[in-house]
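Run DUF7704 domain-containing protein through structure prediction, thanks.
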Amino acid sequence: MPPSFALPAFYSLFFLVIEPISTLVGAYFAHFQPATYLTLTTPLSPSEGELPQSTVIVLTQLANLYLLFALNEAVVLRSTSDLRVWKTVLLGFLIADFGHLYSVNALGFDVYWNVLEWNAMAWGNVGFVYAGACTRICFLAGVGLGTERGRNIAARKMKA
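Sure, done. The structure for DUF7704 domain-containing protein is below.
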């Protein structure tokens, strides 16, 4: 069966390479460097050696979810050219993006916009999630896909 859409190089690079790799980095730190992961998330985290067993378990579970995310993107999306499957998976990830952004609200509203204060973890938890969400929104809207809807959106933007 021929592909139901043409995947532009940018989407291919982002969804099939960059994002899965960055998600695996998050999984690595959550599981193998839990104290570092916590310290980078918020300075109020305990120092290494003081992590409760429950925290280590939860971070390992988080790492497992990151792994699932990476596998779904890198393997499931790579295995199909069905636009409906892509949109379904990416819509689920977009909803998860909003949940991920919500998860850091306890750090204060500044965490969402004060980029000069961001450390590496904030760039991952907020900045990179913004990039992923925007890329998913563009994909779901058909931008650059060569679909009729995508062409209509591009035409409307050209007129504006």
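The chain has a mean pLDDT of 88.
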